[in-house]
Amino acid sequence: MYRSLLLMVAVISVAAGCAPQAAPRDTLGQRETPLAPTVLTVAIQQEPSAMVPGIARSTTNYLVHRELGAWDRAGEWVPVLAAELPSPQQGTWRVNPDGSMDTVWRIRPDLVWHDGAPFTSADLLFALDVYRAPEATPPDGSAAQLIESAVALDPLSIAIHWSAVYVDADKAPNMVPLPRHLLGERFRAGWDSYASSPYLRTEFVGLGPFEMRHWEPGSHAELQAFDRYYLGKPRIDRIILRFIGDANTMIANLQAGTVDVITGGSQVVTPIAIAVDRQQRQGGLTPIRLGFSHAGNLLSIELQHRASMLVQPTVRPTALSGRP
């Protein structure tokens, strides 16, 4: 259970920590022995309504898709699919004398969608058109009102003109990439045709480290490592997302070993925290340390791998400050 708790905290980091892995050599060093496939089973409480992060934000969505930028572990916004962030120093973020603003985005070369089609500036322009549609609910409504126009400078860059200064323009508002070659015709046919496309959900095609292979509504989805991901093929070969709505059932599956990871809000985390806290109060050794905010909210669950470092807790963990 404790190993699964660690995975619950770190699953996204592990899955996205992509790099080609070498197979171990045998004792004679003459041939390579292939590694056994790795499969991770993850229980999530709610079956996703869509896999596009801009439409439905879920940690599982980022397994199959990526955006131009993202927050890193240090809390800084860094480029992901973008080659660089717009900046005044690079001349790609300019405030004009009339109060308007211009930004330029450049994307990494050689990025491909899961079906092998190249990711280009046309996909970003298409995404902006979708989020500016009257029927759309854009992730950033203010940005949608301020963006006056956008044009492709070349296959890997676009220029956006803003009617006024917008301080979060470098966060790529309303620019979650969408595959124009798959959704463009449906969008032109009307919003209902676009919104009902299976490419937004069960047949999703994205730019993330894992690609959608199968979706069984009401049951599970299967993801496969994408070997053309720009950071390299993920170390995990396959991820199975099981849709389990009841928190107690999720925990029971975790204890039984039928799932490796559970995710969710307080309904999932709180029972685990209570069980660990009870063990600490009884004075037993535990490899788990809980972190609480000053308001009493659970901030973190940390696992100690070294048995020599395990100590017998005598008091409840000290309240920690920080962001929840």
Question: What strand line-up does the widest sheet have?
Answer: 9-10-11-1-12
Give the H and E element order.
Answer: HEHEEEEEHHEEHHEEEHEHEE
Structural class: alpha+beta
> What is the class of the domain at 67-207 in the CATH system?
Alpha Beta
Oligomer: single chain
Low-confidence stretches: 1-16, 19-31, 313-324
- Within CATH, the superfamily of the domain at 67-207 carries the name Dipeptide-binding Protein, Domain 1
Give structural notes.
This protein has a domain at 67-207: Dipeptide-binding Protein, Domain 1 (Dipeptide-binding Protein, domain 1, Alpha-Beta Complex). Helix content is 24%, strand content 22%. It contains 8 helices and 14 strands. The protein has helices at residues 2-16, 61-64, 121-131, 141-146, 180-189, 191-195, 247-256, 266-281; strands at 39-44, 69-71, 77-79, 82-84, 93-95, 101-107, 147-154, 157-162, 210-216, 220-225, 238-243, 261-262, 288-292, 298-303. The strands form 4 sheets. Strands 9-10-11-1-12 form a 5-stranded mixed β-sheet. Strands 4, 5, 6, 7 and 8 form a 5-stranded antiparallel β-sheet that branches.
How does the SSE layout of this entry go?
Layout: H1 2-16, E1 39-44, H2 61-64, E2 69-71, E3 77-79, E4 82-84, E5 93-95, E6 101-107, H3 121-131, H4 141-146, E7 147-154, E8 157-162, H5 180-189, H6 191-195, E9 210-216, E10 220-225, E11 238-243, H7 247-256, E12 261-262, H8 266-281, E13 288-292, E14 298-303
Helix pairs in contact: 3-5, 7-8
Summarize the structure in short.
The protein is α+β, with helices and mostly antiparallel strands. It has helices spanning 2-16, 61-64, 121-131, 141-146, 180-189, 191-195, 247-256, 266-281; strands at 39-44, 69-71, 77-79, 82-84, 93-95, 101-107, 147-154, 157-162, 210-216, 220-225, 238-243, 261-262, 288-292, 298-303.
